[in-house]
Design a protein that fits this description.
Layout lengths: L6 H4 L1 H18 L3 H18 L2 H5 L2 H20 L10 H12 L2 H23 L1 H92 L4 H27 L9 E2 H15 L3 E6 L8 H22 L3 E9 L2 E8 L6 H6 L1 H12 L3 E6 L5 E8 L12 E2 L2
Parallel strand pairs: 2-3
Antiparallel strand pairs: 1-7, 3-4, 4-6, 5-6
Helix pairs in contact: 2-3, 3-5, 5-6, 5-7, 6-7, 6-8, 7-8, 8-9, 8-11, 8-13, 10-11, 11-13
């Protein structure tokens, strides 16, 4: 029997009504006071046991004990009155009780026992005519037994539905919390991406502009024409920086076909740095796979941009080397200089280097910065290639 269900709860009111009706009708039908007193005592005992929750909510053995006692009490009531009697109706209460409190096979067996007890008592009290009275009672036991079983199944289905609804609501709540966390994560990642874009584009442009303006300031007394040329270059850098800023803020990207090929973008970057400084850059650019993804191309370009910017600002170098190669299943960008090297604390805390590391990891690659053999600093980024990313002699494009 399910511990979550109690037949006295499901059929309590109907059972009370039937019990009262049988008691009143059965007692009024009796003429002898002694029989009436005995019947009243038996009915009281029957009611107490029938409505005792412990008997039906405990172990299965107690259900069998309760049904046996109630059957004996009902048989005693049947034996008190000859002819047709109201007391077999008490088995109408026991039939659904058995079907709802026991497994279906045990319940069916008890309905058979109720029928046999009723038939024996009716036969002993009324003779063969008592067996004729048995048929409608048997039909009633079966009907009420089925009714009790159906009621139990309906209640179990209701409880199961409520449980599923509770679990569904809990799952929905968890899904909503997960969606909220994902939304926060996406927002955080997007903020980091925008921060990297602002640093790698606008920061780079402004750094070059600052270096060129310093050079122009020094050249004004000795070579004003050269100073004017540098100022013009700074103006172009500022205009390009504003273009980058609008693009980042608006979160728009031009199509790949409209953008400059990666090799050309890197070559132009090298030329801009050399024009702004006295740094000599040796570029060796292999062709890249044609179908490098946009994030892969951006990672390569931004790494070169950040590395050259740092060389200008911190390295005090006279030469730098930029090498782009594709080997087997990896594309590698290597940038080195002959400057003063780098401080490890600065490499760990610098926002630009942190952004480059994040970019590489997002593409499943690696970012390294270490000392160069012979002095200076060396920066490298390795990005894995898929099977479809093959070298075909054409460079990819970069949204620079």
């Amino acid at each position: 029997m399910s511990k979550d269900l109690d037949h006295t709860r499901l059929l309590k009111i109907p059972m009370v009504v039937v019990m009262v009706a049988v008691a009143v009708a059965g007692l009024l039908d009796m003429t002898m006071p002694s029989e009436r007193s005995t019947a009243a005592l038996l009915l009281a005992a029957f009611a107490v046991i029938l409505f005792t929750p412990f008997m039906w909510k405990g172990k299965e053995i107690w259900v069998h004990v309760g049904l046996a006692i109630l059957s004996a009490l009902a048989a005693g009531l049947l034996s008190l009155h000859r002819g047709w009697s109201f007391f077999p109706i008490l088995f109408f209460l026991l039939a659904p009780t058995a079907m709802m409190s026991l497994p279906i096979k045990a319940g069916v067996v008890w309905i058979g026992i109720f029928t046999i007890i009723t038939g024996i008592v009716l036969y002993l009290v009324n003779g063969l005519i008592g067996l004729a009275l048995l048929l409608p009672y048997f039909a009633g036991y079966v009907f009420f037994g089925i009714f009790g079983w159906v009621t139990l199944r309906a209640e179990k289905n209701r409880l199961h539905t409520e449980q599923l609804l509770t679990e569904l609501q809990a799952a929905h709540q968890q899904l909503q919390e997960y969606a909220d966390r994902m939304e926060e994560l996406v927002i955080s990642q997007e903020r980091n991406r925008i921060a990297r874009e602002m640093h790698d584009t606008l920061g780079h442009r402004l750094t070059i502009a600052a270096v060129q303006l310093e050079a122009a300031q020094r050249l004004i007394p000795a070579d004003p024409e050269r100073a004017v040329t540098i100022v013009g270059t700074v103006r172009e850098q500022v205009k390009e920086g504003l273009t980058d800023l609008r693009r980042t803020v608006a979160m728009l990207r031009a199509s790949i076909e409209e953008d400059m090929p990666l090799n050309k973008a890197l070559t132009r970057l090298v030329e801009q740095v050399q024009q702004a400084t006295s740094l000599v850059i040796h570029a060796n650019l292999d062709d890249c796979p044609q179908d490098l993804s946009l994030p892969q191309r951006q990672t390569i370009y931004r790494t070169a941009q950040e590395a050259l910017t740092n060389i200008q600002r911190h390295a005090k170098a006279s030469e730098a080397w930029l090498q782009l190669t594709t080997r087997n299943d990896t594309v590698e960008l290597l940038i080195s200089d002959n400057g003063v090297g780098f401080a490890e604390e600065q490499a760990k805390s610098g926002f630009g280097l942190l952004g480059l590391k994040e970019r590489a990891e997002l593409q499943g690659g690696d970012f390294y910065i270490n000392e160069r053999a012979g002095g200076g600093t060396q920066v490298a980024v390795h990005l894995p290639l898929t099977r479809n990313q093959k070298i075909d002699g054409q460079a990819g494009a970069i949204d620079g």
